[in-house]
């Protein structure tokens, strides 16, 4: 038995938001209103006219394909470390001991901001770079700088949608633990189990994610009725989805929605997510009074370490 093929979402369900008005005016009311509706339900949306040059995307896409095509022993020399930087090999296990434990049909490569080890901040550390593939570093760092600029545009928009000042979220990302990741999904025509697909169902643990996906598709999101639906690639856009932290900040006004990846198309699939994460010393709590229910506060760095331990046991995070 194979997992059923999911229908594609209509754009009325997963909207395309034009960010050009926000680049000119961070308080643009029609754009903020559209973003607010998308954040409430479904918690996923596309953005176009986002300001990230297509040449940067194309260059990193080329470098990702070249890197993942390298011999396995070369990639293994930069194996992912306890700072969540480096190569994530195919077939890694996640959520060991939990009901959603599974084996992901995917390999990846992670970087963060270039920093040195810090005894009080275990998420800090230098990136690992493959010596045989020098162009990868310049492509990833250039893309990181550009997409981080987009993340600030979106952070201001999220704040405005919540009735906060446009700049109120920006200080929470003054020393971000954000991560940029390259993904490669080999073809998987007939997956039979949900715990053996490209990426098992999950919600992102950070604030929000900015995703570029190639034209092959494979991203699926879970609707409120529990059914899965595909989020097809749209030329010139990124997919943005909210993580658990934004859901807490919004006091559950915004949705962090489960999603998964199944590469059914018979071709290698590539994607580039940028996980936007706050300062590890930020205390996470609701920032607005309205919502389903207030929740207790917690330190982001401690929470993220716990999440990464569970999601990526291979990293051997202490």
Question: Could you give the topology of this structure?
Answer:
Blueprint: E1 16-18, H1 20-24, H2 29-40, E2 44-48, H3 54-68, H4 72-76, E3 86-88, E4 93-94, E5 102-103, E6 107-111, H5 135-161, E7 179-185, E8 199-202, E9 208-213, E10 219-222, E11 228-230, E12 238-242, H6 244-249, E13 259-261, E14 269-276, E15 283-284, E16 298-299, H7 300-311
Parallel strand pairs: 1-2
Antiparallel strand pairs: 2-12, 3-6, 4-5, 6-7, 7-14, 8-13, 9-12, 9-14, 10-11, 10-13, 15-16
Helix pairs in contact: 2-5, 3-5
Explain what this protein looks like in three dimensions.
The protein has one domain (16-315): Sandwich (Jelly Rolls), CATH 2.60.120. It contains seven helices and 16 strands. The chain has helices at 20-24, 29-40, 54-68, 72-76, 135-161, 244-249, 300-311, and strands at 16-18, 44-48, 86-88, 93-94, 102-103, 107-111, 179-185, 199-202, 208-213, 219-222, 228-230, 238-242, 259-261, 269-276, 283-284, 298-299. A hairpin with a 5-residue loop joins strand 10 (219-222) and strand 11. The chain is globular and about 50 Å long.
């Amino acid at each position: 038995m194979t997992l059923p093929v999911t229908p594609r979402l209509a754009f009325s369900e997963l909207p395309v938001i034009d960010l050009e008005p926000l680049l000119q005016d961070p308080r643009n009311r029609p754009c903020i209103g559209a973003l607010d509706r998308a954040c409430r339900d479904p918690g996923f949306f596309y953005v176009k006219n986002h300001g990230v040059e297509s040449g940067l995307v194309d260059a990193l896409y080329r470098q990702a394909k070249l890197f993942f095509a390298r011999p396995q022993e070369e990639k293994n020399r930069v194996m992912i470390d306890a700072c969540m930087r480096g190569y994530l090999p195919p077939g890694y296990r996640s959520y060991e001991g939990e009901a959603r434990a599974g084996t992901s049909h995917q390999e990846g490569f992670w970087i963060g901001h270039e920093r040195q080890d810090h005894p009080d901040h275990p998420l800090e550390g230098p990136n690992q770079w493959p010596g045989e593939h020098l162009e990868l570093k310049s492509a990833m760092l250039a893309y990181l700088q550009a997409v981080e600029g987009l993340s600030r545009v979106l952070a201001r928009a999220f704040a405005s949608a919540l009735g906060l000042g446009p700049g109120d979220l920006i200080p929470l990302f003054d020393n971000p633990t954000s991560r940029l990741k390259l993904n490669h999904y080999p073809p998987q025509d007939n997956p039979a189990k949900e715990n053996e697909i490209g990426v098992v169902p999950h919600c992102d643990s950070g604030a929000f994610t900015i995703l570029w996906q190639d034209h092959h598709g494979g991203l699926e999101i879970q609707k409120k009725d529990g059914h899965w639906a595909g989020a097809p690639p749209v030329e010139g856009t990124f997919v943005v989805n909210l993580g658990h932290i934004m859901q807490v900040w919004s006091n559950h006004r915004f949705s962090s929605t489960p999603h998964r990846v199944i590469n059914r198309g018979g071709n290698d699939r590539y994607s580039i997510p940028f996980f936007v994460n706050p300062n590890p010393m930020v205390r996470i709590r609701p920032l607005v009074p309205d919502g389903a229910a207030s929740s207790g506060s917690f330190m982001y760095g401690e929470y993220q370490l716990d999440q990464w331990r569970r999601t990526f046991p291979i990293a051997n995070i202490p």
